[in-house]
Amino acid sequence: MDFVGSHILSVDQFERGGIERVFAVADDMAPFARRERMTRVLAGAILSNMFFEPSTRTRVSFGCAFNLLGGDVREIAEVGASSIAKGESLHDTARVMSGYSDVIVMRHPEAGAVAEFAETSRVPVINGGDGANEHPSQALLDLYTIRTEIAARGGSIHGLRIALIGDLRYGRAVHSLLKLLALFDRIEVHLVSPPGLEAPAGITRRLAERGHEVNEHHSLEQGISHVDILYVTRTQEERFPTAAEANRYRGLFRLNQEIYTRHCEPNTVIMHPLPRDSRPAAQELDEDLNANPNLAIFRQTDNGVLVRMALFALILDVAHTVHETAAQVRWFTAKRTPARFRKEARGPDFG
Ligand code: NCD
Prior knowledge:
Blueprint: H1 16-28, H2 30-33, E1 46-51, H3 57-68, E2 72-76, H4 90-100, E3 103-108, H5 113-120, E4 125-130, H6 136-152, E5 161-165, H7 172-181, E6 188-192, H8 201-209, E7 213-217, H9 220-223, E8 229-232, H10 243-249, H11 257-263, E9 269-271, H12 297-315, H13 319-336
Parallel strand pairs: 1-2, 1-3, 3-4, 5-6, 5-8, 6-7, 8-9
The structure holds N-carbamoyl-L-aspartate (NCD).
N-carbamoyl-L-aspartate is lined by residues 57-58, 129, 135, 138, 172-173, 233-234, 236, 273-274.
């Protein structure tokens, strides 16, 4: 896969080699993300962050990732603040914004809108989430987290057993992650959703056609008992036709420490793309799990910076330069620091 100058619109663009390349570059980013070293490889470059839907993590971590590589960030954070509110088309906005930027990250409430924008853009566009369709950078950081967590427990992505829980119908992070998992070998997938919020048939068919084991459950307890990873999601209330319909599903599945202890294997990793809905009526991931060392949600958000730095470095063709510096850092650290003072790579802090 050739990343240089490419849009990242869907995980369908990836094969295993491309994913491994992103992960290798993300590994190189650790000393820069931890502020142990500085790089200015993207000095003078401008990222335009165009977010037409609420976002905390995705927008800020893309921005931080660009800043950490030395670039500058411009933000449009709501439709009302842009000329789209005056009736400007995506076509015109793309033509204008790509004249001001070297790369654009866009989130939009409509499926397919980011791809439409990218058709006119003269600079690479990264999909930061388009409606209920896809969220490619989230899926890459989720898979990077799965790889790290499972490696720390002696496993690999191949042969993984994973339960995806909650709103699998509208959850774009789930859609992209399932498509990426389909590229690996012998994945055992447990899809745990209330009736009516099942994953799209096209995605489950793709998994089955590639020889993976797909199990659908409507009971939380059944779906979570024999897996390595629990991937919990919130009800995507903004995608439902009415608020009343979203309310019917709220709070149906709630994972807490008691259910985890009773039904899960020891050291089962808990993930969530966040935000978790902590309002009393929802609480799909109870805060009483916060002290559980297998709760990987904040390692996941930290990994988001590494993976997004990697995407920028690959698309803007500076990955090699960063790699040289990272290799130098590793060499100096190994040479100069007595073993007992060496900082371990940040990993799971369980056991
Ligand atoms: C996800 C999204 O926007 O799709 N959030 C995120 O980017 N981390 C998941 C969600 O909103 O539930």
